[in-house]
Amino acid sequence: MLIVQKFGGTSVGDLERIQNVANRVSQTLKQGHQVVVVVSAMSGETNKLLSFAEHYTQTPERSEVDMLLSSGERVTAALLSIALNAMGHPAASMSGRRAGIVTDSVHTKARIESIDPQPMRDELAHGKVIVIAGFQGVSDKGQVTTLGRGGSDLSAVAIAGALEADLCEIYTDVDGIYTTDPRIEPKARKMEKISYDEMLELASLGAKVLQNRSVELAKKLNVNLVTRSSFTNAEGTLITKEENIMEQPLVSGIALDKNQARVSLGGVIDRPGIASDIFTRLADNSVNIDMIVQTLGHDGKTNMDFTVPKTELLDAQKIVDQFVAEGEISECSYDENICKVSIVGVGMKSHTGVAAKAFQTMALENINIMMISTSEIKISMIVAEKYAELSVRSLHSAYSLDR
Ligand code: ASP
Ligand code: MG
Predict the structure, then answer these.
(1) Which phi and psi (to 5°) does residue 338 adopt?
(2) Does 72 sit in the ligand 1 pocket, CB within 6 Å?
């Protein structure tokens, strides 16, 4: 098999850990696989480099920031390659440029435009392990670019896609994706397999494990992703196409989002275009809207409720005030003490009663549901924040995720 192995900052945090990574790569090679390694900078290194730049100015040129930050990943790549060579495994390190990763010119947040796999294929053909500096590429103007914080996951997925690798393993200090946050429910279990779409909906459970952008890219390029720990030999969680998962559980996991606030608008003038006006102005001011509920209007007025990230509530309030001043909205209220609990599973596409069970579970616990929204594979409920943990635990056991 051709395997891409990506090691994050903590996995390459010091020289001894880089040696551990070399040992792990060596094991994989001895099993007869071809390996392409992608590395992050040693943990803390990117922040340290950034702080160096900020010693001079709060606004360093972005192209210089890229020149600076990209060096962190190169250090790790070169050291790992040296360690592998010293163990008798012919290895070659490559910068993003050498690995053929071409991006746009949006410095510090570049997007990958293309990858020429030939230089990597040539080295592989010579029997070498390739160690690639993650998080970086080269713009069509020939300048070094970086892909945004946490971007080495993206490098790994893109490279796996370009090389049509059989597997892309993302190594961190967490051993996989759990059915819910184990700090809330100690009975949470590690999932063996999960589909791309479920993983995207369960983003909060994977937040510390991998970037959402890389899951989206893996889905697009059809890359089989595995998240696992570099500190244990435990099998990780495979993130793959829905069709590759034979036994679909009804519900795969329960996610919790505490960064939610509710905006309630009353006496909204019920005319064509009002929703467009309100939500366009919110969007123009970079307020992200999640759930929206509009009730049936009467007497020319209607009610609208929606949620925004807590951190964007002040911005939302300012916009709502404008509409109040313009006479389009007569009442507004805000609630920051809420949270969103979501049940995710592809099994709900083909089974009935999943939502009813969620509502029964909340009723049994006497938890009031303020808003509900559903998609093909997700049911989300807004409840008071003080019931966050209780909701998660009750739902987790209601769908037998602890067994
Ligand atoms: N070193 C970069 C960062 O800290 C990229 C990465 O680790 O994925 O954001
Ligand atoms: Mg990372």
Answers:
(1) -130, 170
(2) yes
End-to-end, the C-alpha distance of the chain in Å comes to 33
Does 41 sit in the ligand 1 pocket, CB within 6 Å? Answer: yes
Name the residue with the closest Cα to ligand 1, atom 6: 150
Taking 80 as the threshold, does the pLDDT of residue 205 lie above it? Answer: no
- The architecture (CATH level 2) of 2-173 comes to 3-Layer(aba) Sandwich (3.40)
CA distances 74 to 78, 133, 136, 158, Å, are 6, 5, 10, 18
Domain ranges across the chain = 2-173
CA atoms within 13 A on the CB side of 126: 12
Residue in the block written with tokens 């103007």:
141
Closest-approaching ligand to the CA atom of 39: 1
Q: How far does the centroid of ligand 2 lie from the alpha carbon of residue 395, in Å?
A: 30
- The average confidence (pLDDT) of the chain is 95
DSSP readout, 158-210?
A: HHHHHTT-SEEEEEESS-S-BSS-TTT-TT--B-SEEEHHHHHHTHHHHTTT-
Chain-centre distance for alpha carbon 218 = 11
Alpha-carbon separation of residue 83 from 20, 28, 315 (angstroms): 10, 15, 51
Per DSSP, helices labelled H in 12-145 are 15-30, 45-54, 62-86, 118-125
**Residue among 320, 184, 194 at smallest CA distance from 257:** 184
CB of 307 closer than 6 angstroms to any ligand 1 atom: no
What sign for the dihedral angle of Cα 215, 183, 14, 60? positive
Mutate to test the pocket of ligand 1, among 46, 66, 155, 173 (most ligand atoms within 8 A of CB): 46
Residues 6+ apart with CB under 8 A from 179: 188, 189, 190, 191, 252, 253, 254, 396, 401, 402
The helix (H) or strand (E) run that includes residue 321 is helix 313-325
pLDDT digits (tens, 9 = 90+) for 119-164: 999 999 999 999 999 999 999 999 999 999 999 999 999 999 999 9
Rounded distance, CA 321 to CA 332, Å?
A: 9
How many angstroms does the Cα of residue 139 sit away from the middle of ligand 2? 22
